[in-house]
Design a protein that fits this description.
Largest sheet: 11 strands, antiparallel
Number of strands: 24
Shape: globular
Number of helices: 10
Distance between the termini: 68 Å
CATH class of the largest domain: Alpha Beta
Bound molecules: zinc ion
CATH architecture of the largest domain: 4-Layer Sandwich
């Protein structure tokens, strides 16, 4: 009977609220909200809007923290000098800003305050009350159910692309309180986003929010906080043209296969815009299966690598994957790997986040795992795990002293002296903030590597690795010194390194 009582208690307030709310026609609710913002006609006659301010965004939706723990401190980036233009006839937006990371990052672009310009179409432009209301009231939208959630009346609407949104409207002041939508996600299957509109201030008679906070339905993470410092109406719009590509590498053109030793291969993705990093995986042959190191990037990336690996030895397929650490780029193909029945090997502390990732449904944006749900098969690593049969031995070890990723593993083939790793060292990095970890890990486990197969970059000799780490540490120190001379105290400075 306990279950029944809970259901009754939960449904009671909704019934009461429904009885209270007077006009419950969605059009009426939206029009009342437009009146509360400054007048329906006034809003309809606005052609454009410029919103300026600054924001902070959470890296990888919270998937880039050092630890996979739900309460681990997040890695934030700052966007300053933000100009977000809205075309209120087309319901599109265009944002320019300069971005800097608020944590030490290994590639210089992360700290260069580089300009960015992004065109936002469709749903991306609708996380503002003016565009959301205009879209909901537009004659190409279809209005849906009305419901109550806490203090807000919620109007569901579908825009002409078929995308569904929900607009929450405060029952007391009738102003839009939030907008909600969902989208596909590499690591989490599908994610629901809610952008809250807070601190309404009148600008030339129209009430507009001074704050925007976007959270997701994974760990309730806040992923964006936007602070407005001003609005201008009916401005001249610039040409909406994207000018930055970010990390996206574009279409996969090919997979390069290199034999590193007998039964050990390096597979690299060849992509349309080979970016600052090239990504790949090591494949290791055992008697009856292949082992893969990392399911990097996305479903597409991981399937390209698995499918290529499965052609290397007749009759042998990839059945196991080592995940070096949980960061969402490094675990972007985990759902894909699990959908193919692969067993995941990683640090024990990653089990919870792996279960979170692989158990989420994706009903509206079904990926391979949603289409073919499989349970997570997980082999935990504490300090050391040996994978061995008559033909091969691979040791999986805990990474020592890496403050960028606290629950990480690397793998080592003792016979060929091959080390496989993700983010312990990358030859393309400009700066190394955690340069000790590579030698610390080798010395701690008494290893003698000759060859390094990384997730990012290319196969390198051990001598190249050590040379490059030294150069990258020196460059990071120079960066710190330049900033300090200018009175700027960067996160990560001074560089901690004890191997001079
Ligand atoms: Zn990485």
């Amino acid at each position: 009977m306990k279950l029944l009582r809970i259901i009754t208690l939960m449904s009671l307030p909704v019934i009461v609220s429904l009885a209270w709310a007077q006009p419950m026609m969605p059009e009426d609710i939206l029009e009342q909200s437009a009146e509360a913002m400054g007048g329906l006609e006034r809003i309809r006659n606005l052609d454009s809007l410029l919103m300026t301010g600054f924001s902070q965004t959470l890296g990888q939706d919270g998937g880039s923290a050092a630890s996979p723990h739900p309460s681990a401190p997040g890695k934030w980036a700052a966007q300053n000098s933000v100009q977000r233009y809205f075309d209120l006839d087309e319901l599109s937006a265009f944002q320019t800003h300069r971005q800097g990371f608020l944590y030490p990052f290994a590639l210089a672009f992360g700290h260069a305050w580089l300009p960015s310009a992004q065109v936002q179409n469709g749903i991306q432009a609708l996380n503002h009350p003016l565009t959301a209301l205009k879209a909901a009231l537009g004659n190409q939208s279809e209005l849906g159910a009305v419901s109550i959630e806490d203090d807000n009346i919620v109007v569901e609407f579908t825009i002409n692309s078929g995308t569904r949104l929900w607009l929450g409207i405060n029952q007391v002041n009738k102003l839009p309180a939030w907008v909600r939508w969902s989208g596909p996600h590499n690591n989490l299957g599908e994610v629901t986003y809610t952008t809250w509109f807070t601190g309404y201030v009148p600008f030339e008679g129209i009430r507009l929010p001074s704050g925007f906070t976007t959270s997701i339905d994974w760990r309730d993470n806040v992923i964006t906080e936007f602070h407005v410092d001003g609005y201008e109406f009916n401005v001249d719009l610039p040409v909406f043209e994207s000018a930055s590509r970010g990390f996206g590498a574009g279409e996969i053109l090919d997979v390069d296969v290199t034999t590193v030793a007998e039964g050990v291969w390096d597979l690299r993705l060849v992509t349309e815009f080979q970016g600052v990093e090239t990504n790949g995986t090591a494949i290791v042959e055992f008697e009856d299966h292949l082992l893969m190191f990392e399911a990097y990037g996305s479903e597409e990336d991981t399937f390209a690598l698995i499918d290529t690996a499965n052609t290397l030895v007749p009759g042998k397929e990839v059945t196991r994957v080592v995940m070096s650490h949980h960061h969402f780029d490094h675990s972007g193909g985990i759902r894909a790997a699990v959908s193919r029945g692969l067993t995941v090997i990683s640090k024990r502390e990653n089990e919870n986040i792996l279960r979170e990732m692989t158990s989420r449904p994706a009903p509206n944006f079904p990926d391979a795992l949603a289409r073919n749900p499989q349970p997570l098969k997980f082999i935990p690593v504490d300090e050391h795990l040996v994978l061995e049969d008559d033909s091969r031995r691979v040791d999986v070890y805990e990474v020592i002293g890496h403050m960028h990723m606290t629950d990480a593993v690397f793998a080592y083939i003792p016979q060929e002296r091959i080390l496989m790793q993700g983010d312990m060292f990358v030859i393309e990095w400009d700066w190394h903030w955690w340069g000790d970890n590579y030698m610390d890990s080798i010395e701690y486990f008494d290893l003698d590597p000759a060859i390094d197969i990384p997730v990012h970059g290319r196969v390198a000799t051990f001598a190249e690795v050590i040379d490059n780490i030294n150069n990258q540490v020196t460059a990071a120190r120079e960066f710190c010194a330049q900033n300090e001379a200018a009175g700027i105290y960067m996160a990560g400075c001074p560089v901690k390194y004890s191997r001079d």
